[in-house]
Amino acid sequence: MPVTPADLAVWKQRRERFVMLTAYDALTARVLDEAGIPLLLVGDSVGNNVLGYDTTIPVTMEEALVFTAAVARGASEALVVADLPFGAYQASAAQGVGNAARLVKVGANAVKLEGGRRSAKAVRKMTRSGIPVMGHLGFTPQSANAFGRRVVRGRGEEGDELLADALALQEAGSFAIVLEAVPAELGARITEALEVPTIGIGAGPGCDGQVLVITDLLGLTPDPTPRFVKRYADLRATIAEAAARFTKDVAEGHYPGPEHQYH
Length: 263
Known about the structure:
- By secondary structure, the chain is an alpha/beta fold.
- The model has no long low-confidence stretch (mean pLDDT 96).
- The longest helix has 17 residues, at 235-251.
- It has helices at residues 5-14, 26-34, 46-49, 61-74, 93-105, 120-128, 144-147, 158-172, 184-193, 214-217, 235-251, and strands at residues 18-22, 39-42, 79-83, 110-112, 133-138, 176-180, 198-201, 209-212.
């Protein structure tokens, strides 16, 4: 059965931990879907992991639509969540609803946006329009220009501010909230205070779920990587080795062999 936002609430009540991974293409989405990954995030991280941008900020709505549609075509059971890129919802709640609807029309089951109380009005308008919304607090990459070099958020009194933001998103109708790069103690505190599930990325083990960027998980991202990254494969080395073997086979005349030819 396809995963729905309501399933996440049940998992939280049962204290069943779950995962979310990013995906940017149909093939990867299909592999992850068949592996039973329940949530696929078409993150604006496509900017620095696929498109070659330095940050997520340059990602456009048009690019978000293309990659969301691709992932939606590859997934059949997973809940596909699409990031609203920078500039797609900040101007007004109406702008956010319009762009969220565009993502849903190409296959997204839900959208994600950054910001707490400042984004609550947009979240409320989207959810009342029938669009499920996932929030995102802590380090929010679209605000990198405002943060400067400080990544970890929520230390000291700032923790109370993030908790207030999380409660505002919940009240506005968010079905889940991503917590990125916050102290583990704060991640657990917010998780206990909320009725909706939290999904951590560098927010400690106390969150209801965990998310990683697929290129980080597979070992494609070069060093340095954030503290929270754990590599579960080394595809960077695997791909380099395969390319070198292909080059060697061609140079030595081993490829194409008889089995690779048409007559």
